[in-house]
Amino acid sequence: MKLRAPMPELVGATEWLNGEVTKDQLIGEKPTLIHFWSVSCHLCKEAMPNVNQFRDEYQDQLNVIAVHMPRSEDDLDLEGIKKVAAEHEITQPIFVDNEHKLTDAFENQYVPAYYVFDKEGNLRHFQAGGGGMKMLEKRVNRVLDEMKKTAE
């Protein structure tokens, strides 16, 4: 997915956990962070406390959506996904992508992976891997600062 590309429609979920959202609900008011993770991904689990802290710190300024991207047959078990989500306090909406429909729409190949969209729904930052929360925070703040400037 290229920078400035529009956010794909959030369709094709096998299931939604913690509530369902649409692209239209996310666009217009505030930027959105969409992060891909998997129950079999050790780095994802390590990064989750940082993602949760980020989500809580920016809850008034940022939409946060999780996408569960299975990497093997074992990752398709919905009860397993629910269990790991509860253990790691993933309270934001989770798009369960057992058929890789959203994964394909994003052209995503990685977990964890982070996509930051501005409030117009255009991709502003992409990053993959377990580290780099400081960079992610910097990019989100840049999008938020631009939003404040255009509002003034």
From TrEMBL:
<dbReference type="Pfam" id="PF00578">
    <property type="entry name" value="AhpC-TSA"/>
</dbReference>
<dbReference type="InterPro" id="IPR036249">
    <property type="entry name" value="Thioredoxin-like_sf"/>
</dbReference>
<dbReference type="GO" id="GO:0016853">
    <property type="term" value="F:isomerase activity"/>
</dbReference>
<protein>
    <submittedName>
        <fullName>Thiol-disulfide isomerase/thioredoxin</fullName>
    </submittedName>
</protein>
<feature type="domain" description="Thioredoxin">
    <location>
        <begin position="1"/>
        <end position="145"/>
    </location>
</feature>
<keyword id="KW-1015">Disulfide bond</keyword>
<dbReference type="InterPro" id="IPR050553">
    <property type="entry name" value="Thioredoxin_ResA/DsbE_sf"/>
</dbReference>
<dbReference type="InterPro" id="IPR013766">
    <property type="entry name" value="Thioredoxin_domain"/>
</dbReference>
<dbReference type="InterPro" id="IPR000866">
    <property type="entry name" value="AhpC/TSA"/>
</dbReference>
<keyword id="KW-0413">Isomerase</keyword>
